[in-house]
Amino acid sequence: MQLPETAVRPDALAWGRIQGFETLFWLEIGDEHKKKEEIEDITRKRWTEALAFCRETGVRLVYAQVSPDWVKKAALWAFKNLPEDIAVVMGNKRTYGKLPNVEWGKVTII
What we know:
This protein has about 110 residues and is α/β, with parallel strands linked by helices. The chain is about 25% helix and about 30% strand. The chain has helices at about 35-55, 70-75; strands spanning about 10-20, 20-30, 60-65, 85-90, 105-110. The protein has a five-stranded mixed β-sheet with strand order 1-2-3-4-5.
């Protein structure tokens, strides 16, 4: 699925209420087949598109990355100084089905 007027396709999208706020949940899984530089580049593109869409629509954003630890580390640089209406959650593929709690304005990692 692709959002209107975006150039990237997330692995999954969900739209609903999280903690009472209308929220877009953007999920990325994997990327371990890519080089570190590619992960950094695509994460920046995905993040920019997701953030722009949420700014245009007025919804909050939860950006989730479920990957091996080295991929999470490569992607982590993109998520500095998060706005208070954005959350990033990062989990490991080996602990499938487990993500940290959403904390607005923060990056939380399992």
